[in-house]
Amino acid sequence: MSSDLYNSFLSKNPSIQDRFDQGKAIRKQVNRSSLAEMTVVKKRQTPIDLLLDQAKTRIPEYVPIRHARMAANPFAFFRGGAAIFAYDLSTLPSPPISVQLGGDMHVSNFGFFSTTEHRLVFGINDFDETLPGHFDWDLKRLTASAMIAAHGLGQDQAYGESIVRAIVKTYRQYLLEYAHTPYIELMRTYIDEKHLLKHAINANVFSQKTLAKILLKAKKNTNTGVIGKLTKSTPEGQRLIDHPPLVEHIEISIHGRKITALLDAALNTYTQSLLVDRRNLLMRYKIIDWVRKVVGVGSVGTSCWVIYFEGLDASDPLFLQVKEAQASVLAPYFPHTPFATHGERVVTGQHLIQGAPDPFLGFGSTLENDLYIRQLRDMKGGISIGEGGIDVHEFPDFAKLFGWALANAHARSGDPAVLAGYCGQSEALDDAMVQFSIAYAQQNASDYETFLLAIKSGKVSCATRDF
């Protein structure tokens, strides 16, 4: 142990009150009311140019699919427009309180996942853009998405405001609680089934039924539970099912190298990132099949593969997702990060935010791409707003869950007492986020119309099929 590290352990930590005071003092640099600001710079780079720049690093044949998914509605456009949002935030006031940002914090990026002990918990479930940065970037993206989603449900601004206030108030309340939670206990603090039903859903029967459905689906969403949906019997054994162009067996990668060579390089580097016991476990499995897969909205066009393994036999399946990790959309604004590769950045961020993620979570690389790898199915369950998901009656309850999950993530990776000191116990932050979310929803609507016009003019490619 170096003397500097040893001395850091000996140095006295500031008290909870000192850290609260530190957070309050930051209000003098960036007051909470200033977070309401949403002004577009005069020489703003157009959202179309930002999207076309991103397309340059994507698989060309998938870019029209990405644009088609973004064109579905204003919320879908917002989901795919994380780079646009980051660009707009970069010129706005922001308190210098760092956490591990999720980076793409919107209301459809939450869900259920399994801890290493196979305990089903609720939290953030997308980390492609994760990076250390100022906490308000996550909070602003989440509240703006909530306002846009509320409009998508056909609700007025007052309803959207109530959703935003539920998120921010819950976020503040749990930061205050986490500020007084012992550090080791905080690392063991998850939003599990018991806490969900007791503290978040309350007496809303509709929310309870929806939650029960989501939980049941997540519990069935395991390697063995989905093998019949993802594979079919062939004379050669179980094989992954093709759904062109979204799921396909292909032999050549986008850079002209055989996929077998790419997978070999990826898995060799990936196994080195795993703990010894997980590496030993993985080596017991045999690769059976692989496909290239289109995923998400913002991620469409990045390279993604699903690899099907078998252990003892077909009754012992394992599905791994190998996903390309490109530079975070936040990187131009928070450039000083300690990660050697983007795959390491994503995996480190997930560990910091989730605390006990997938035991097979790791990172690797090929000559062409940085990658991160995780199980495709391990009691995972997503949440959607509208169209068979959370409806207008349930959104207020789930909004509290979103605020709670964000507070849990920020408390794990940042200093909850400093955060709580800055956020305070009044509604000053809530008021600012309401004003910001209203203004950004209007900007997003304008950008969406510009996007549709660019598709109509042919400047932006767009698939004609419904994917």
From TrEMBL:
Organism of provenance: Polynucleobacter meluiroseus
InterPro entries assigned to the protein according to its UniProt record, in alphabetical order: DUF2252
PANTHER family (alphabetical): DUF2252 DOMAIN-CONTAINING PROTEIN
Lineage: Bacteria, Pseudomonadati, Pseudomonadota, Betaproteobacteria, Burkholderiales
Recorded superkingdom: Bacteria
Pfam families linked: DUF2252
Protein name (record): Uncharacterized conserved protein, DUF2252 family
